[in-house]
Amino acid sequence: MLVQFTVGNFRSFLDPKILSLEATSISEYPENTFRSAKGKLNKCIAVYGANASGKSNLLRAMGFMKSILFDSFEQSSTTQLPFDPFLLNTKSQKEPSFFEAVFIIDEIKYRYGFELTDKIICGEWLFMTEKRKEKPLFIRENDGIEVFKIFEEGYHLERKTRANALFLNVVDQFNGPIAAKLIHWFNNFNVIDGISHTGYRNMTFKMLEDKAIRAALTNYYQELDLGFDDIQIKKEIFDTSQMGQELSEELVRYMVSDLERETIVNLTTKHKMFNEQKEFIDTLQEFNVRRQESSGTNKIIDLSGPIFDTLKKGGILVIDELAAKLHPLLTISIIRLFQGEQSNPKNAQLIFATHNTNILGLGRLRRDQIYFTEKDQYGISDLYALVEYNMKGKKVRKDNSFEKDYIRGRYGAIPFIGDLTKMNLEWQGK
Description:
Blueprint (H helix, E strand, L loop, with lengths): L1 E7 L8 E4 L12 E4 L2 E4 L1 E6 L5 H17 L25 E9 L2 E9 L4 E9 L4 E8 L2 E4 L19 H7 L3 H11 L1 E5 L7 H9 L1 H13 L6 E8 L11 H11 L3 E12 L5 E9 H4 L2 H19 L2 E5 L7 H12 L9 E5 L4 H5 L7 E6 L5 E5 L4 E2 L2 E2 L6 H6 L23
Parallel strand pairs: 5-16, 5-17, 11-15, 15-16
Antiparallel strand pairs: 1-2, 1-6, 3-4, 6-7, 7-8, 8-9, 9-10, 12-13, 13-14, 17-18, 19-20
Helix pairs in contact: 2-3, 4-8
């Protein structure tokens, strides 16, 4: 379970900013929280903000941290790291980016992070808290790595760690048990895109092939009233006659070369059939999901795999543009899967970015579950929670209309649009 995430000097974020999942002492919607060994945590976090305000950069930072952790060991000593600092400041261009996650595994709180440039890991650290006192496991600085007795699995691996590789990853490669536990935790920390979502369908295939989860998935589709009675996985041999005529000859040639005699997996839905008198007949019409269902239905099906996989494992799922293509009530249904005790017994967590303000009114979110990103005149993104926000010197009350107040600009984090009726368009009258 994630307690907080911090990012600094990455894309539009200059100074370190913290996204916290710790539940504050506010009283609303206690069912949206769960108790951990180190206090109460929220199950969901929503991030709002104008376009280009930093929402996506915040979520990308989470995915970036994970990708560096999983990829660094396999690189050569000459490989450059994917350094992406804040570029609108001459000083920050040359300084390291900062990433840190605080999380709980088996009732022990860990704090792990690192700093990097395009060439080296400038710093790396791992601390743990079992009771009250935080203890270091290892601390890495430019000139070396100090390994403490509590992390003896890291002994003698300092010299095996390249300047551009993470020490935690190296220790995991040598079967360190604590390192393996942390890597496993990060493996269940997934960042996905809510717009380009087709790549997640394979996960939905796996969920539908799992008998224990298939029933939950199909019940969820039924509850959403998506218009079909059943969904099936259909496997068939690749057939060139099914390819669209609009494809170029070169693309067709490559596809035939790569896919000939391969098994293609498709999803099909089954719909009720009616006669001329609109009476139900004992026949179901089969639809190809990709070609014949709506874009919203495709998105729900694509994302349902990662969603139910996260609920099953008790992991963390981060989704950019969660509400794109979806009716507000469908988006809220996803949030409620994570908020519910029965649907989320392992306390999986959801972090999502959205522009859909209906969720502020209908989503039953606590003030400490709502975050905003806002960019200043220097191109620097800020991040703040609604529970912390002062509106004319006063805290936001739980009975405020969050949606209306946000649209009116009372919380900031909205685009400042001028009077478009006064724009002088050169092409007018031509």
